[in-house]
Amino acid sequence: MNDDPEGKKILVIQTHGIETPRRTYSPLFYAMAATAMEIDALVWFTMDGTSQLKKGAAEQVQLDPTSDVTLKTMIEQALEAEVELAVCQQSMALFDMTTDDLIDGVKILGATSIIDLSLQADHVMYF
Amino acid sequence: MDDTPEVRGCVLPLHLHYSVTDHTWLLIQEDGIATIGMTDVAQNLAGPLLHAKPKKVGAKRSKGKPVATVESSKWVGPVKSPISGEVVEVNAELAKDATIINKSPYKAGWIVRMKPSNLDAEMDGLLTGQAAVDAYKERIEREDLKPCTHVEGFEI
Q1: Residues of A with CB below 8 A from B77's CB?
Q2: In this structure, CATH architecture of domain B6-142
Q3: From its phi and psi, is residue B58 left (phi > 0), alpha (psi between -120 and 50) or beta?
Q4: Hey, what CATH class is A9-126 in?
């Protein structure tokens, strides 16, 4: 185990969207754990994952019906924890999404950027 | 005067210094070492803790940098240092049972002890006594934070 992860970079790739709620919370949770450990974390939403970032979508996703926590809560907590969120520009087209459809705080990046980020990261997690 | 006032059920002992922003407390011992922990408000927001991992002894921290990470089933995040300095002791009991923080946030649930490096300047940014209670009350009301609930055996 690495005793000193401070300053390292993790890239989390999220390919699952709002149609599979149980696959939405954990990648954000791991990214928040990383930033708490002073590791730079970026979550890259691509393919179906893009749907999580559409305005009005995340608040409809709730894993525990007895809790008031929704996917929107998780995304807001992640941004507050300085997790970077980025979306695949090409995948946005699949969902007929424009910049105006995206929630605030999300960067739009293209395929070459994600390759660069993958090469720069110390570790990549896929979901 | 009550020396352990409560705001929405959250206990805030008057003798401690607080970073209301980061939900931490600090107590300077006679030998100059600072004991640091999470407030009752913080443990309540996090919920029952599963893990608490302090930085290692010897770690040098600037004010605002994490001295530990804590996680519950619903939240994970840093415990930010209210001062700059070097970690000289960590609470080893937390590795066995992180819920000590829930049960005793101001005593047995302390997280690290630090040798301060810039205490005089940085204490100005911390609040104590009624000023701390008032500032915390303002934050709790502004953010509509949920009332504190305490587990059996909770101690002040």
Answers
A1: 32, 36, 81
A2: Beta Barrel (2.40)
A3: left
A4: alpha beta
